[in-house]
Amino acid sequence: MPRPTLFRFLLMERRWDRWNAFCLQFEKAARSLAKEINAPRLASVTVSRKSFDRWAKGDWYGRPWPDTALILEHLFEVPCADLFRPAPDGMRMTGSEHERGELRASLVIAERWPTSRLFVSSGQTAGSWELAGRQVLDGTTAAVTFHPVTRSGTTAHVDISDGRALDRFLRPARRGFLIGVEDQGDTPQLFVVDAANARRARIASPTRDTFDLPKAHLLDDLTYGLLWSLVQFDDGLLADDFALAQEHQALETYLALPRSAPSRMSLPDLTSAGTQWLGSSFCARHIVRRLDGLTEPPVFWTREQTGEQAATWLWFQHKGDYLKTLAAQYASTETPMSRAFCVPEAEVNRSGRYERILLLLAITLMELHGIRVDVQAKPEYSDVDGFAMAPGQRAVVANWIRTEAIWAVDTISQRPVLREYREALGEARDHSVARGPDSQSRLRSLAGYLDIDWCWLIERCQELSECGTASIMRPRSRHLTVDTLDEVFQFLGSLAPNL
């Protein structure tokens, strides 16, 4: 006859074998832990009757939410993974500091970034990290493992003394992240590195007990935004790789047409990442072709309003190539290129800081290529087409963001429409929230509008420019690059934080 689980054993031992009695103790533990680790959210966590009955029978399907698991550990002083194993004969178990650090780290990530969900059980080698898209991206899952960290100066020393467990985590050719946890004070400090990089370091020094990470690897709003967007784009484009190769060959036919707007239903199997890549790639080629031979620089209007939408500029290889092509084409002209965005305050308020940082980095990319950016906040201009206004009487329209089609392109010469476009550009120029005579002043004022600490951002970009984006995370799709971000970090890192 099998022994009861430790959970049942402890319930009976403490006479909490009924749901009401257990809930009283659970809620008391939740309030106590909320105060102890300064996490008010924990005080409202409860356990349903259905969950309690299932647990009391020894059934355990899936893993608990990080906050529930943390409270259970605080209540029983036992790792969650052990609560539902056969009870040891008269033995009391206490969770290790490392295991409590894992759960605290999971809780911190889930609380800071609502687009994250972690499923990690104490005592397990690895868990899973679910990343959800907000408006555009599909979401995906990566593997995750936690390791203790000690720090000396600006270097984080990740404890990898349990080499076998780490090797098991690193061996599969999957997307994964190693998170170092410095569990000191009320809130643990977290450091992140791609499993592929950890695998390289492990192969290079197989006998070392530590893995060193620079301060730039700190998991904060900047690095989380990069990780969150890259992993979703990467997994989506890898899933669509064959389909995109086939469809890309057919783009020449569409490029010859004066206008086109293929339905998304024509390619129903593409992920959101694949659809964005195809739409943005076609629009870039359409604009370059329609502007060929133009001697004066056009004025651009773009439809990206959030970091989720604008992150394509940072990761897609063809986006950087497109900007460089335009910069080279109009390098000798006296009038600089300009580009206008419409970012209403409501969108800013709906976005997390990590997403607003992505938007600011994308706009920085324009400025470093000599494109003056104006950002207006009036929501009535949100639905204006994306276009390039050419000198004379025409505008090249190219939409792929917030459209029902994969892309919608045209060349407009009707005067009423052109008048609307000029009005939108004039409003953006006259009422831009990114104001100033140079890139630094415009970007700094935009950071204020987006509620991003300018000095903090410059310092973090300096740190990231020293180690490079690829030291933290690497894309696997051939359509993505880290070179663009490295250029942005170097540009921002070169600016004076206090001017």
Helix/strand class? alpha+beta
- Uncertain segments are 89-95
| Overall average pLDDT | 88
The level 1 CATH classification of the largest domain is: Alpha Beta
CATH-derived architecture of the largest domain: 2-Layer Sandwich
Number of helices: 21
Helix content: 40-55%
CA-based shape: elongated
Architecture blueprint of SSEs:
Layout: H1 6-13, H2 19-36, H3 49-56, H4 66-76, H5 80-83, H6 97-112, E1 116-119, E2 127-131, E3 140-152, E4 155-159, H7 163-170, E5 176-182, E6 189-194, H8 195-204, E7 210-214, H9 221-239, H10 241-249, H11 251-255, H12 272-290, E8 299-301, H13 307-310, H14 312-315, H15 317-329, E9 338-342, H16 345-350, H17 353-368, E10 372-376, E11 387-390, E12 394-399, E13 408-412, H18 415-430, H19 439-449, H20 454-467, H21 483-493
Parallel strand pairs: 3-5, 8-9, 9-10
Antiparallel strand pairs: 1-2, 2-3, 3-4, 4-7, 5-6, 8-11, 11-12, 12-13
Relevant terms:
499 residues, 7-stranded mixed beta sheet, 6-stranded mixed beta sheet, 21 helices, Trna Endonuclease, Chain: A, domain 1, 13 strands, Endonuclease, Chain A, 3 domains, alpha+beta
What does this structure look like?
This protein has 499 residues and is of the alpha+beta class. It folds into 3 domains: 90 residues, no CATH class; 116 residues, Trna Endonuclease, Chain: A, domain 1; 259 residues, Endonuclease, Chain A (2-Layer Sandwich). The chain is 46% helix and 15% strand. It has 21 helices and 13 strands. Strands 1, 2, 3, 4, 5, 6 and 7 form a 7-stranded mixed sheet that branches. The chain has a 6-stranded mixed sheet with strand order 10-9-8-11-12-13, with helices on both faces. A hairpin with an 8-residue loop joins strand 2 and strand 3. Helix 2 packs across helix 4 and helix 17 crosses helix 21. It is elongated and about 85 Å long. About 1% of the residues have low confidence.
